[in-house]
Amino acid sequence: MNSLMKIGAKASFVLLSSAFLFSCGNDPQDPGLEYAPDMYNHVGYEPLKQIEGNKNAINPHGMNMRVPASNTIARGNLGFYTHISKDSAEVAGRELKNPLAANSANLGEGKVLFQRFCSPCHGQEGAGDGLVGAKFKGVPNFTQGRYASLPDGHIYHVIQNGRGRMMPHGTQVNPEERWKIAMYVRQLQKGIVDVAEDEATEKQGSLVTDAPAGASTNSQADGSNPVTGTLTHPTKDIRD
Per-residue b/e over 20-46, b at no fewer than 16 CB within 10 Å? Predict the structure, then answer.
């Protein structure tokens, strides 16, 4: 009886050792055996997770997440799209209107944003003499020539899409911040650097607090978009 128990114990030890040996591999990324996989991977399709070999039989290419329909805009992000092509800054200058109030609060934020994102090239006073501008010639001086009369919409559009050697900054600053920068640049065009304090500060013109909930809509009295200030149709381009 004792000999049978010893044989059984040895056999169990061999089997257990073999299991440990074969469950360990040379690949440090291999998690080994997975017990009860349904505890880790949901039986139903999860849109943000794609399991290798588990293809969705309904969606194209077997993917769980479907690609949005072309030319669609995420809910609440209509203000990020002006329906104006990237190379049409002049059109933007005519059609886009700054929806923010020109007060000290917005100008002050515009100055901070300008110094943070624009001054390395354009300089603290917009004269094109920033550290980068001194190295790479040709940075515009906002106080001279045609640059001294550029409208807000033109400036907004160039900030968003870039122009010439200037790269687009649409991913760094949101629409509200672009309008504040454009507002401050309009002040630099006149040679004014400092921001004067307002006597009345009831109207801050913030698009964060004033913006409607959900998808952006043309809720302004003149039919303009409350974020971009565009006067075009909200769903299609009606320009000639």
Answer: eeeeeeeeeeeeeeeeeeeeeeeeebe
